[in-house]
Amino acid sequence: MKLDWTRNETLVATVIVAFCVLAAVSDPGFLSIATLTDLLRNGIVLGIFAVGVLVVLVSGGIDVSFTAVAAFTMYVTAMVLNTAMPWMPWWAALLFGMGIGACLGAFNGIFIAGFGLPTLIVTLGTLSIFRGFMLTFIGQKQITTLPPGMRQFGRMMIVRGTNADGSFYSLHAGFLATVAVVIATWFILKRTMLGRSIYAIGGSEESARRIGINVQRTQFFVYVYVGMLAGLAGVIHASMARVANPFDLVGLELSVIAAVVLGGARLAGGYGTLTGTILGVTLIVLVRNSLIVLGIPSTFQSITIGCLILLGTGLPAWQSKRAAARAT
Amino acid sequence: MTDKLVTLEGVTKTYAGIKALNGVDLSIAAGEAVCLAGENGSGKSTLIKILAGVEQPDAGRIFFDGVAQGPLTPRASADAGIKVIFQDFSLFPNLSVAENITFSAELGLGAKLVHPARMRELAAGTLARIGVEIPLDAAVETLSVAHKQLVAIARALATDARLIIMDEPTAALTEREVRALLTIIRRLKADGVAVLFVSHKLAEVLEVCEYVVVLRNGAKVAEGPASEFDATSLTRHMTGRDVDETPPAPLPPGAPALLTVEGLGKSGAFEEVSFTLHAGEILGVAGLLGSGRTSLAKALFGLVVPQTGRIALQGREVPLGNPIAAATAGIGYVPEDRLTEGLFLTQSIARNIAIGRLDAHSRGGGVLDLPGLWGEARDWLKRLSIKAPDANVPVRSLSGGNQQRVVLARWMARGSRMLVLNGPSVGVDVGSKAEIHGIIAGLAAQGLGVIVISDDLPELLATCHRILVMKAGRMVDDIPGGGISETELAHRLAS
Hints:
heterodimer, A: mainly alpha, ABC transporter involved in vitamin B12 uptake, BtuC, two-stranded antiparallel ribbon, 13 helices, 2 strands, 3% strand, B: alpha/beta, Rossmann fold, 2 domains, six-stranded mixed β-sheet, 20 strands
């Protein structure tokens, strides 16, 4: 198959390969199972967030409140389970988190789908409200003793082993959750009329209304779904960190949106693929993890990520512009 | 009433205090083609939206097969077999051709999952029925305007339609494609499908429709069998007055050459194009879609970069492929799609007129002389008789004809010496059209050179001193305006 350079995916994949080659040359230890498991581990929460953001961007909206939803959910889940339902097994804890997240997402959905308010304004508002509400009325102290279900999940590993040089490596079971989220979202977006309606609304909301797509219901689903994924990511994050810190996660939202945009989703809506999103997340995680390996100071990270966004989204846009100019 | 497919009784709709529709009655029988005629703003689009279930009427009743309907939704309307081809197509640019054609059909089937094979089969079958080939997997945004329109038509035909409403279905099509569409409409009628046809092109209307309903200012002003109408009477009903097309004043002999084009060429678009435009002359360029006419128009204004040839205005060479240089030299360009390419729709009339020459309004230090700017804008409103409360209203709120005048005012304010008008009356109603033609004639009388590019042959014949015919990128004919009939010109274009 011929490589299509007007696609973000091709470009991002190339940069990832180039980055790995560069890292491997400067540090032969880079190509190891430990690096891979580290990468996957760091991609778990970011990946779930990114899939949610992809769905919103495709629908033509934007959600910046998902990190607050995640922080709120993990804190409330840890607190409620500790005090009222310590008997809950790990899977019930995850479902509980998804439920809380979905409720918070529904709150966004009411304003966006119900009242037709601009998505950025609504989610900027709820970002502040969710976070402020949690810190004011629920608590600010870290919960260091997680409920048994979350502790149990925190210890679950898919693989565990020792390298030749004696270092440990392991891959957390949360990775399977990310895989499940990707597969479920792929199915919804590509194989259901609901998913195609999300693309259709992102392409043209007015046209969608005219051919009888239920725009309100579809948008409501989108924000509930994003909230649900954020809730799941929040509980997984706390379980893996073995602490529910209410000051965690918020502030991450722009990096996640950057990763999704890097993968080819357009802020104007209608465009974006899961492949691109996964590649975008991979690249961001790779850069965050590995610049130190290359001997580059960590403050350099944000410069690098910024340059990648400019390059990764600018180059395909420039190329498709040139292609369009050639066509006329 | 029971033998009628769709009946509207006393339908009224008010927007912000203005009656868009006022007690309109309308009925359509199976297999009947009804033409809905009217100028922009007469209420045609509102009527269509009500039938489509997109808008709800404030008063009045709607019957399908004689059964009174509750509030309509787009879904209920589509399920009743009412299919609308909207003027703006209402397609999804990001989805494939196949999905665009079948999305509504799949929703109608109540599908929860995507059935790719079924959708492809339906899309391919529908496209074959209207006799066009468009790649099923192409994203609609990559298609030409004509193909987009055909996809919109295919979407309406994809499932069992009982009434097809076409809002300006031929605006983006060439003569040949219009012929094909009219054939489709006749076939649909033979199958018992009713058609409600909205068009500005009166010849088409009278050709396919048996019955004509004319709206003006939201009310029905005339109706009757198509045989009782002709272009003149239809125009009179639509506008409420007689509209005459006056041929342009003859060009004085010995008018100086204004624009000289020599051997202009761009591979894949046009080649060896040479012609001269005289001061005060209106020169028409006729050609089918793909003949290179649009590329040529853009090349004259520097929007397309030619590889060979030269352009000179009053003997001074104009650099190729540089719109700013072209504008400075005195060339003005009015694009075909003035809504997206020519105007800042949400901005005021004054700003739209002044944007071409902000420098001239500068009072030094880059500060704008606003009173001067407003005064000039008001002056242009008067000179081009733009109908607007004042220069402060957004251009979006104007009718098509008045929007076109704003674009013209911008170039005239710059002191352009020649204008390239690409489809000057696309999407404009008959009344405004005649007025735009009058404006063009007026500009020429002042000594401006005007190039009119259009596939509306009557328009070219009515306005131009001379018509150049383009075919496959070459100038093949140079015809004096008065010396050819419409059929003869159509024949030369297509042969």
